[in-house]
């Protein structure tokens, strides 16, 4: 599959853009485990053109993580165009526009998925950004605002007409947020629309290698994007790539092997931020990882792990978990 001249190979698996998750260290780790393309956290166009330091830092990308996309969001055309020009200076491979974020502070102000209620403005922004950019522009959006307004089939054609080079679709409406199951039937309908010629990327509830393969085959998408399924489990890309290539499950590693990856995430987070903020940042991964699922009487240990305030405290708990599971090397 290609996005313009960017060849992502057969059955590409992409790391979805996620706020407070897809920082440089996590992107690089997922890339090393087989992610074919990674996305930054989303970048506010308004904050970017005001040169807010925290926002500008999100543009930091490295050659090791390429191909990489930087994603921007906003509701004003001029601001989005100016932000796109600033983003180009960071030299990403792709500029992605976020028309899918459902959270209130974004969608409630008319940006992100809020644009699904103002399609003319969405198309105006898309066309203007495409015209201003010298790199491929893609879009990520949802099925529609709510179950009564699933507009993605028609909208996909309109976005394509604006000149975008690819479209990622999350199989939920904005009103669903992240609840219920992702509905891929309309994603498949978009992909099978004979008028569509750009790559279609499916997103939503891809949490296993088997499901990735099934959805590639059932819906015919050009690529699959993995979001929450990678949190606390960056090795999921390795599992998926192996299954897609061989049709067989990748043999499991030792408990300690997976735990070492989580330890590395802790160290990376602390190195990027500082001990206090790094620990706070990594708690989402520790809380979401499936590694601890099924360990008996784990509740108190989980609470202690998520309350740890230093790396030393946290690693003592992780060492204890490894011993408890009888896997200490």
Summarize the structure.
By secondary structure, the chain is an alpha/beta fold.
Structure description:
The chain is α/β, with parallel strands linked by helices and 329 residues long. The chain has 2 domains: 2-246, Aldolase class I (TIM Barrel), CATH 3.20.20.70; 255-324. The protein is 43% helix and 14% strand. The strands form 2 sheets. Strands 3-4-5-6-7-8-9-10 form an 8-stranded parallel beta barrel, surrounded by 7 helices. Strands 1-2 form a two-stranded antiparallel sheet. A hairpin with a 2-residue loop joins β1 and β2. α4 (77-89) runs parallel beside α6 (119-132), α11 (255-272) runs antiparallel to α12 (275-288) and α11 runs antiparallel to α14. The longest helix has 18 residues, at 255-272. The radius of gyration is 20 Å and the shape is globular.
Whole-number average pLDDT?
95
Rg over alpha carbons: 20 Å
* Largest pleated sheet: 8 strands, parallel, barrel
Q: What is the CATH-assigned architecture of the largest domain?
A: Alpha-Beta Barrel
Whole-Å distance between the termini?
A: 42 Å
Structural features:
329 residues; alpha/beta; TIM Barrel; 2 domains; 8-stranded parallel β-barrel; two-stranded antiparallel sheet; 10 strands; globular
Reconstruct the topology from this structure.
Elements: E1 2-3, E2 6-7, E3 13-15, H1 24-32, E4 37-44, H2 45-49, H3 53-56, E5 68-73, H4 77-89, E6 94-99, H5 104-107, H6 119-132, E7 137-142, H7 152-161, E8 166-170, H8 185-191, E9 200-203, H9 209-219, E10 223-226, H10 236-246, H11 255-272, H12 275-288, H13 299-307, H14 311-324
Parallel strand pairs: 3-4, 3-10, 4-5, 5-6, 6-7, 7-8, 8-9, 9-10
Antiparallel strand pairs: 1-2
Helix pairs in contact: 4-6, 7-8, 9-10, 11-12, 11-14, 13-14
């Amino acid at each position: 599959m290609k996005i313009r001249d960017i060849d992502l190979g057969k059955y590409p698996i992409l790391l979805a853009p996620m706020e407070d998750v897809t920082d440089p260290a996590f992107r690089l780790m997922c890339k090393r485990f087989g992610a074919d393309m990674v996305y930054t956290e989303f970048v506010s166009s308004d904050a970017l053109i005001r040169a807010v330091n925290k926002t500008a830092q999100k543009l930091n990308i490295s050659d090791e993580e390429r191909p990489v996309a930087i994603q921007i969001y906003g509701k004003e055309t001029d601001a989005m165009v100016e932000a796109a020009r600033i983003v180009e200076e960071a030299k990403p491979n792709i500029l992605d526009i976020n028309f899918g974020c459902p959270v209130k502070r974004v969608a409630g102000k008319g940006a992100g998925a809020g644009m699904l209620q103002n399609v003319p403005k969405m198309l105006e922004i898309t066309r203007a950004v495409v015209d201003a950019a010298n790199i491929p522009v893609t879009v990520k959006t949802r099925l529609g605002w709510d179950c009564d307004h699933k507009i993605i089939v028609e909208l996909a054609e309109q976005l394509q007409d604006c000149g975008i080079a690819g479209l990622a679709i999350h199989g939920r409406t904005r009103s669903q947020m992240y609840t219920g199951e992702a509905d891929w039937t309309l994603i498949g309908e978009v992909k099978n629309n004979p008028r569509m010629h750009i790559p279609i990327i499916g997103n939503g509830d891809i949490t296993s290698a088997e499901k990735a393969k099934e959805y590639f085959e059932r819906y015919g998408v050009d690529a699959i994007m993995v979001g929450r399924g990678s949190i606390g489990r960056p090795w999921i890309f390795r599992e998926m790539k192996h299954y897609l290539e061989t049709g067989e499950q990748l043999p499991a590693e030792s408990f300690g092997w997976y735990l070492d990856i989580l330890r590395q995430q802790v160290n990376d987070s602390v190195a990027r931020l500082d001990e206090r903020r790094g620990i706070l940042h990594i708690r989402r991964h520790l809380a979401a990882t499936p590694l601890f699922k099924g360990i008996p009487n784990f509740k108190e240990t989980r609470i202690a792990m998520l309350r740890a305030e230093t790396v030393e405290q946290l690693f003592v708990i992780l060492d204890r978990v490894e011993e408890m599971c009888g896997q200490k090397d």
